[in-house]
Fold this protein.
Amino acid sequence: MEAVQTNTRTYNRTLVVVVMMIAMAAGALMQTSLGTAIPSLMKAFDINLSTAQQATTWFLLFNGMMVPLSAYLANRIPTKILHIIAYGLLFIGVLVTMSTPENSGSWWIFIVGRIISAMAFGIMMPMMQIVILNMYAPEERGAAMGAMGLVIGMVPAIGPTLSGWILKQDHTILGFTLSDSWRSTFLIPLVITGIALVLTPFLMKNVIPTKKVKLDFLSLILSTVGFGLFLWGFTNVGSHGWGNVPNVLVPIFAGVLLLVIFVWRQWNLSNPFLDVKVFLNKNFTIPTVVGILAMMAMFGVEMMLPTYLQNVRGLSAFDSGLTLLWGALLMGVFSAISGALYNKVGAKVLGMVGFAILGLGTFPFLFLTPETPTIIISVLYGVRMAGIAMAMMPMTTKAMAALPDEKTSHGTAANNTLRQVANSVVVALLTSVVQNVINNNTPSNHLKVTEPLRYASKMLDASLDGFKIAFLISLGFAVLGFILAFFVKQDKEEA
């Protein structure tokens, strides 16, 4: 492990990264393991599915709203203190959520815990990228960002499997019994966050130089309300449909209007809240868009496959999570490989190869049937995740390398903000597509009474058709990503 000398103080970069990865693992587990626990939450709190999904909706909203603020916080607050604040908020949020009494009247407490956690996670993700970019030289960033990709890619995919394993039955580990309660799904993130919080005062260092930056409150209001309304509108698409005016169209258009005003204001400020002029640099913009396409392709199928496996194939939550586990492991392996290859072949080659592999792994999903062997699905999913790993983090590294050091915090915030928006859009898009296909192909109700087996068969076909269209859209992301990767600049030092 290599020590770095800065401001007459020596610190170990590897230990700093390890602390951040531990905390990020806790945040990612807390974020992604909830989906498997939704049925348990509905039963425990006596709430319906729409109410239970608020836990995800509010998390996405506040996570997205906090990301633009990260650039200001990174420049204004010392690195160590900001990490302590973020990890402390995450610990409190998970603890509040985990401790919520089981009754419908206390559901708001659960949501408050999720909001606090989302605010912390919205700071943690951009901060990890900013710290890595400040600690490592351009020729070293590929490997460091590959390690970051290990957490970002693997842990979210492992979360549903781990949650399904916990909820399946009680488990005794080293004499301690982990119950099959929904609360146990938050216990592991809580413990991991606690470890990171204890280590941070000793291992985290003030890597990012601070400066007195005035907070433009109008910009803060425009960004938080604008992104909040925009993301809220898209998260409502799945339950209300695209044509719903008050819950979908009004917040989306109002959010867009506020964001246009926000961008115009940032463009004209001498010290912007978020420097949108970073997008004038095409060597930043193109890799950023390519990386976002890889993220959208990942989230699209990652969201659809568990539903297909459970609703069409009849697998349990735990078994469906196991089917996707190999993909998570392969993504971790190829994140490390792509990091090692970054300086040898460059982001352009890695991106094109990655999207080609992603396309090859996605295409067979268009021909899924209720009888497709689970092992085939697992292999194809693994191929997809390997391709995503080869494309996503190298493109993020490439984008950040195109900016001067003083712009990395703004570039990271802009990159993560667009990712959050893109993820919300793709979830809304694919959910609405699948639901519309199912609604348009649902057989008449009398068939449910007269010929229940035929009714079930037609519903199965309708669901499968919806999933295939979702997979086709994801294939489109892969094709578009491959094309755009061709236009990424190949630097002279890259092969």
Remarks:
- The longest strand covers residues 3-6.
